[in-house]
Amino acid sequence: MPDFRYIARELSGKQTEGTLTAANEREALGQLTARSLFPMKITMAQASAAHQANKRRRVPARILCVFYTQLADLLRAGVPLLRSLDLLIKQTRHVTLKGVLQEVRDQVADGTRLAEALRQHPTVFNELTISMVRAGEEGSFLEDTLQRIATFTEHQEELKGRVIGAMAYPAFLVVIGSLVLVAMLIFFVPKFEPLFEKMREDGTLPWATTALLTMSSFMQQYGWLGLIALPSAFIAAQKYFSNDAGKRRFDEFRLNLFGIGRVVRSLAIARFCRVLGTLLHNGVPILNSLRIAKDATGNRILSEAIATAADQVSAGRSLAQPLGQCNQFPLDVIEMIAVGEEANNLEQVLVTIADKMERQTNRQLDLVVRLLEPLMLVIMAGVILFVLIALMLPIFNSSSVM
């Protein structure tokens, strides 16, 4: 529980100050009153560094899914919100979530709405969750909203897992291939250099062997520079892409990258449609829904296009028309959104679009992985074959001369 600093007066009129531990400000005031002190000022003391660091930690999505589902079940069973939070605080073993829920519970006990209490912890609860909880509170369907949040979060984690799983093997091949090549240049190739010294002096060494020995010599002499250059380049790139211009350029590059760009675009649009459809289904106004959903794309180019469309929607235009003018969304998506607006079932159409694009993304990912795996194997085999030919060619030439 947090500490509170207070300044109060005793019955005699003497001013006193100190600190006390309480769950919230109301409990702190109660403790002062019980001591016959009249509080003049009370503030929360500076939290410890460990407490602050713990608050900045994120909670895994799978744990949040369990929390949302359990809270929805308790509320559906008729358990009051405060009692439900107390039960979940006792049950959870995740330190960060336990502390966050305790603070949320205390704020709710003080009369704060659940959505506003969750908003105080942006590293744990995102804007989508907060907006949906607010809509659920206002519409008296909080338990249904929490269940939808759990389903949505679980679905997004499954999609992320499929993407990471699909790209893991090609990335593994790249790393292994690079390590094998470096090891061959540093440890294996130099053992052949004395055999080719006379041929190098005579100028009869094949160009492939000369190039291989040059690369090997460079790696032996300046390979240590790579240990400095690679981290330095990584830090420089990270610094560049941390500002707005760098992030925008990187997002634009991802959308236009051959083979991968279509997958990135489809994933971003699918997230946008699912978030927007979920928010609209829960009664969140369309302008607020667009503001939240644009950030769900994870891409500044698409986010800017959606923000422009939102401005035009606020001026009375339909959503499909400005989205079509930005040239970032596929034509079939625009047409389905237009039909959904005309039929007054936009939220259902958006979820349908998300399902369709995620299936399409799965097919695209499978295709990319099927192409990348043999391509990486061919490249690795080609590199090894080049090394072997470069080493054996001088020997064959010497044998033919003899």
Task: Please characterize this protein's 3D structure.
- The chain folds into three domains: 3-46; 59-155, Receptor-associated Protein, CATH 1.20.81.30; 169-402, Receptor-associated Protein (Up-down Bundle).
- The protein is built from 17 helices and three strands.
- It has helices at 25-34, 49-56, 61-76, 81-91, 95-109, 114-119, 127-139, 142-188, 197-202, 207-240, 244-256, 261-281, 286-296, 300-314, 320-325, 331-343, 346-401, and strands at residues 3-9, 15-21, 38-44.
- Strands 2-1-3 form a three-stranded antiparallel beta sheet, with helices on one face.
- Helix 3 runs antiparallel to helix 8 and helix 11 (244-256) crosses helix 12.
- The protein starts with a strand and ends with a helix.
What are the low-pLDDT stretches, counting only 5+ consecutive residues below 50?
A: none
Across the major sheet, the strand order is: 2-1-3
Total number of domains? 3
Quaternary state of the chains = single chain
Mean pLDDT: 85
Beta strand count: 3
CATH superfamily of the largest domain: Type II secretion system (T2SS), domain F
CATH architecture field of the largest domain: Up-down Bundle
Global structural class: mainly alpha
- How many alpha or pi helices? 17
Order of helices and strands: EEHEHHHHHHHHHHHHHHHH
| Rg over alpha carbons | 31 Å
Give a short overview.
The protein has about 400 residues and is mostly helical. It contains 17 helices and three strands. It folds into three domains: about 5-45; about 60-155, Receptor-associated Protein (Up-down Bundle); about 170-400, Up-down Bundle (Receptor-associated Protein), CATH 1.20.81.
